[in-house]
Specification:
With 232 residues, this protein is mostly helical. β2 and β3 form a beta hairpin.
Amino acid sequence: MGFYFFDYTYLLFVIPGLLISIYAQYCVSTAFNKYSKVRNSSAMSGRNAAEMVLRMNNVPLIPINPISGNMNDHFDPRSNSIRLSDPVYNKTTVTAMCVAAHEAGHAVQHATSYAPMTIRRALVPITQISSSLAWPMVLIGLVLPVQYDFFIYLGILLYGVALLFSIVTLPVEFNASRRAMVALENSGLCTAEELAGARKVLRAAAMTYVASTLTAMLNLLRIIFIANNRRR
């Protein structure tokens, strides 16, 4: 009897998304941990790496501030500043160098009005609202009679906005990593082994955004699947 109530959409959509996310997190944790133990030969700290990327892209230096925590490094477009975590700011590891260079890549995007970043920033307010309302709308539609299915389709629309945000995020993140790698390669301060490690770290970080987008796609497909089954 228990199997009658089993929601098999978990097997089709939720569990695959969960496995993808777990694998991506494993990859990034493995790469970050490995190269957090490898010092770069030029003794370049995270802060130094960020400053180098800005200089090489002819972007005026902006505040680069330390913040407590781990893996919460980010560029803040509101204050036009880079914030680097404890394991990155003053550390001279390959991971610290990569993470800081990547965040500086975002600063370069901001300075050059990189289109995908501008679009992404414009989507932030509506995405925050749509993400919080999507599933409640779907659940309301499932509880109410079929004639109120428009709640489900409203939920699909709202979740589609969240998916769009994830898709737009991909070129922003990939481009920031590309800018970081170009700067590291052109600096002449990194050995071939360090550059190879840098690529692994940045690729692993990019995997988390790809996983997030795939998971969002699977969740949207799940909602559509549920809606279609309800109409039958």
